[in-house]
Structures are given as structure tokens and as C-alpha cells.
Amino acid sequence: DAGITQSPRHKVTETGTPVTLRCHQTENHRYMYWYRQDPGHGLRLIHYSYGVKDTDKGEVSDGYSVSRSKTEDFLLTLESATSSQTSVYFCAISGQGNEQFFGPGTRLTVL
Amino acid sequence: EDQVTQSPEALRLQEGESSSLNCSYTVSGLRGLFWYRQDPGKGPEFLFTLYSAGEEKEKERLKATLTKKESFLHITAPKPEDSATYLCAVQEVGNYGQNFVFGPGTRLSVLP
User: Fold this and answer.
1) Chain A interface mutation, best of B98, B101, B106, highest count of A Cβ atoms under 10 Å
2) Over the stretch B90-112, which tens digit does the pLDDT of each residue have?
3) What is the CATH number of the domain that holds B61?
4) Does B84 touch chain A (CB under 8 A)?
5) Closest by alpha carbon to B29, among B94, B89, B87?
6) Does B12 reside within a domain?
7) Residue B100 maps to a domain
8) Cα separations in angstroms, B29 against B4, B32, B94, B105
9) Could you tell me the residue range of the domain that residue B84 belongs to?
10) What distance in Å separates the CA atoms of residue B6 and residue B21, rounded to the nearest whole number?
11) Cα distance between residue B84 and residue A10, in whole Å
12) Is residue B109 in some structural domain?
């Protein structure tokens, strides 16, 4: 987890409300990722970024948006949370495009 | 379609009982295969990267090997603190970023 923090670590929200999760890194790595982890599905890529203001969709991007205005911060937004978005969200970073290093995760519950 | 499978789904070992975990993959071109360890309530922790068939990496009681179709994580004389879920992931040559595919994991329990 060194160099990567996620906030909040836990959040409970209601269906239809907007939610923003933050990932912060101190490693100055170019690549940043958002994953969700669910039982039976493993880790699935939501969105990723390859530089400031450069982002692209992953496997399960519907209902999510991201922004990266600074190298160190990568935000994941659920515009209108649904119960199917209850999950554990992990941020990861990568320097040279190889191994990824993960943050501690955010547990999100949508009621 | 790229796919990563892991077996067994769960494994229970007695302390000191060596075994192996399997990661099988199908990608058109492998750029790298990665092993991670994940403890409950925490993010995956990076263990190894393997790039080509025949390559091996070791760390304490763990050794990872790679063939053209699969990778093995060998655990020698495990201890209870080795209990965790072990994940493998593959990265395909080509479109970087969205090509890191994770397997479902093997949940390892080492009993004292």
C-alpha cells in the first residue's frame, strides 16, 4: 500500500445519490486504474488513466466516470449510485506499464 | 477472448505440507504474468512478474514458474502466515491499460 491512499475507506449511501472515490499516489507513476472486486467475478477494470486528463474505459465502465486533473489524483464518480455498484473498489498504479500496485480499497454499500 | 483460470478454488494444507497452485491463461500474446497475494480486507500485494516460458522467480517459501499455457505457484513447507488468496493476472501484448486480466484466485488456508 506504500504510496497509495484511498478515501473514504468505507461508505454507505442510498440509491440515486452521487458518490466520488479518491485515489492519491505519491509515486509519480503515469498509469492509474480503478477496479471493482466482487465475489465470483474477481478484479474487473472500470477505467484507467495513462496521464493527466488521459483516461479510457475498462471492462465494466457503465455507470462510472473518472477524472485526473493532477498526476497524483484519480477520481472515480458514480453519478447515480445503484445497488449493483455495491462492491470493494481498488485503485492501482503502474510505473512502466508492468506490475500494478494496489491501494487498500474502499468498501461501498449502496442501499 | 482472453481468459485466466485458477485452480483449485480453495486449498487447505497442514503446516509444512508443500503444494502448488495453478494459473492457466489464453491470450494471443503474453507480455507478462503476475502473481499477487491478498489478505482479507486488504488490497492485492505484488509478488512476482514472469515474462517468458521457462522463467522462475522465488521469494521465501514461494516459487513461481511459467510455461506457454500456465503458471504454477509452488509453496514449500508453508506456514499459517501464508494463508491468503493468491491471484494471478496476465498482460497481453498490445493495447496497454485495458489488457490486465485477473483470475478468480485460489484461497489458501494453512493449518498449524
Assistant:
1) B98
2) 988 876 665 789 999 999 999 99
3) 2.60.40.10
4) no
5) B94
6) yes
7) no
8) 13, 9, 8, 22
9) 3-95
10) 8
11) 22
12) no
**Do the beta carbons of residue A102 and residue A17 sit within 8 Å?**
no
Q: How many domains does chain B have?
A: 1
- What is the C-alpha to C-alpha distance for residues A92 and A31, in angstroms, rounded to an integer? 8
Compute CA B91 distance to the chain's CA centroid, rounded to the nearest angstrom. Answer: 13
Identity of the residue in A42, A90, A92 whose CB atom sits nearest the CB atom of B105: A42
How far apart, in Å, do the first and last CA atoms of chain B sit? 41
Contacts of A1 in chain B (CB under 8 A): 42-43
* Cα radius of gyration (chain B): 14
Q: For A45, which residue in chain B has the nearest alpha carbon?
A: B98
Residue B44 forms part of a structural domain: yes
In chain A, what's the furthest Cα-to-Cα distance?
39
Q: B78 with B48: CB under 8 angstroms?
A: no
Residues of chain B with pLDDT under 70: 1-2, 95-98
Q: Give A98's pLDDT tier (boundaries 50, 70, 90).
A: confident
Spell out the domains of chain A, with CATH numbers in brackets. Answer: 4-110 (2.60.40.10)
Residue A88 has a CB neighbour count (10 Å cut-off) of 17
Q: Looking at residue B74, what DSSP letter applies?
A: E
Question: Cis (ω within 30 of 0) for the bond into B112?
Answer: no
